[in-house]
Amino acid sequence: MLISYLKIAWRNLRKQKVFAAVNIAGMSTALCAALLLSVTAYREWTFDNFHENSAHIYQIVSEENNGGSIRTTSSISVPLSAAIQKEIPGVKATTFMAGYNLPVRYGDKHFYLSTEKVNASFLQMFTFPLVKGNKQTALQQLNEVVLTENSAAAIFKQEDPIGKAIELNLSGKWQPFIVSAVAANLPDNSGISFDLLTRFENEPDYATYKSDWNSSNFPLFVQLDPGVSKASLEKNIVPLLHKYYKRKIEDMQKDAGASAKGKEVFLMKALPMTSFHLDERSNFYSGLNKFYPWLMIILAVLIISIAGINFINLSIARSFGRSGEIGLRKSLGAMDRQLLLQFWAESFLLCFFSFVLSIGMMLALLPYYNQTFGHNISLHIFQNIWVLLGVMVGFFLVTLLAGGLPAWKVARLNIVEVLKGKLGMGKSSTLRNGLIIIQFVVAVVLISCTSIIWQQLNFIQSAPLGYNATQVISIPLDNATPANIAAMRSRLAELPEVKSVTASMLNLGMGKDGSSGNWTRGFGYQNKQITTQCLVVDYDYIKTLDLKMLSGRDFSRDYGTDSTAVVINEKMAKLLDVADPVGTQFSMDEGKPLHVIGVVKDYHYESLRKGIEPLVMIINEPTALNYIFVKVETPNSVRSISKISAIWKDINPLAENAASFLDENTQRMYRQEQRFSRIFMTGAVLAVIISCMGLFAIAVMVMAQRQKEIGIRKVLGASVSGIVLLLSKDFLRLVLIAVLIAAPAAWYFMDRWLERFQFHVNIHWWIFMLTGLLAVCIAFITVSMQSVKAALANPVKSLRSE
């Protein structure tokens, strides 16, 4: 019976080639987009889920209440780790992670490996299986390292790496280490990434860090015993903080005043491992908003819905041309379920062909999709039985909904009305019109959102940052020594295009090394607690970046006292709350007194998502410098950066990361927004194309139904333009209704999105007017293509049967 239905369905589809082509093209495109978006969301949600202890592993982050504003930091003081494990019940293990790209030497070969310095318990906490060695004994000695399969193969080729000695460059010195184990290559959905593991105690200055409660430099992870909850851990940390941070908490409570009464001003929160990838408080935050995977699913559903609406509309409209067949079958005794199965079989065939075509499209587009949207989806994800099951269930749901509704509606037609030629056109038109409105609501929302995101990106690119970003080159130091920096200064002084050279602890924006960060410190001043960003800089920092000096002076080699001097920004000057901040003294972390020598105008040293915070620049820690900044004046920027990069490579052969201009760095900070823009734009284009395909096909059928009406109007003297307007206005009215519904929805979504930026554009009414006008024009062009054809047709042909 089913085979018979499929054969009949195949013959009917061959007779309706245009109908079949429109449905297959629209549905296959939508299914391809939905597949790509859905597997992307699935991958984002399943990061780090392969760890056996993932339900019991948390990252500890601190929260400070500074008089109403909450500051969250992921860096924790080193001695707190031992205190947590010793004094809080239910804590099974702890580990710090300090990640760097380190030079590695084996014989005369050099490599750069992504290195994580961890505690001895790391391999017991996290599930990184060893292919060689024993995880119970690996990393138990300070001079041991664990390599991944790929890094071991790159270094040792066919040799057995176990027991072999390699050298790591730590703080400019080569030190020997023994390979004790080899880990399997990391899954592509691992948030923790490394080529080499070694002990955390090999961190420079570890001897100082391990007893320093005031410095917070590294992320801390804890594993709880089964049955111990996150809430229990957070509750038990509170008395620990009051014990070891008593003075800090008292100062913070004084500063917060009445707003802190009865509240904790200094807390530690536990982030579940399953949320590391999408929680911006985590050190393994991917840069994606936690709503991002949901956005993928929502877009997938919207695109499939638009294609499904086309399918339903076209199937119902096409059924009116088959009234004779339906009436004859019913009069000969065909039951409703038999008609339903026949029409659903046709829908199933269409959806099956669309699904097969969508798989081929996905395979062809996958490399381009990954490159365009910054993803790393591979076909291996379809080896997961849950992914395959989800795809099959999704396909049958789409087939059932898109094909089932028209089949059910046709099967329920009254035989008498069918034989009289009355098929309930009014009700079908209402359903059709409602579905068309939904299609264009989606399209207009996506177009509007794309326009506003594009405006915000333009604003970001053109917003004044307060420093020179177009003529300054940033060079990562890559473990260079102070002697390398001095040599670089000397060599750069010989280049005529180089106007100034300086160095800094932190980059501006995000360089090609993928690094960005901040350094927060707090101190007491005049009975209040002040929290500020700190920045270690070299001489000529203000000059090189063209920062504006408001009062005082810059750091100078002519002043021996500048080793205890600081330069602050306007925000910090307001916090000090003195008439003239120059000369003001304060101490950080109970260190030596610092004195203010100058105040610079506020500048955006962080993303425009954040407001400008207080800043203190220090010059007395040269070993903390990580980037060289070079100001150039040249008509050929590409040639200059190539020349400077070559000089740096000659001075520091171990240099790995490329130099970049600061304006490039600032743009890299907004990759998420650029990704949003591309996704919305692609979704909007797909929505418009699929909607127009359906609108065109519906217009063809409506024109066919009104063929005689058009012929009569032409005979009675109606003009071509009048007929085109008459035939198009009903569709344009639907699009206008869709615009009115979509505009407030798009405004709401984008207003919420813009809240993430401290500095952003305003949403203007004319954006929605232009978007609506664009939608109306697209719809008019789509409908008028068929309207003009119908209006120009010879009325004799349409009326000769009357």
Automatic annotation (TrEMBL):
The keyword Acetylation is annotated on this UniProt entry: no
Main location: membrane
Annotated InterPro entries: ABC3_permease_C, MacB_PCD, Macrolide_Exporter_MacB
Residues of the MacB-like periplasmic core domain: 26-238, 480-638
Subcellular location: Cell membrane
Membrane association type: Multi-pass membrane protein
GO cellular component: plasma membrane
Segments crossing the lipid bilayer: 20-42, 291-312, 339-365, 385-410, 431-454, 679-704, 731-750, 762-783
The protein, known as: MacB-like protein
Gene source species: Chitinophaga polysaccharea
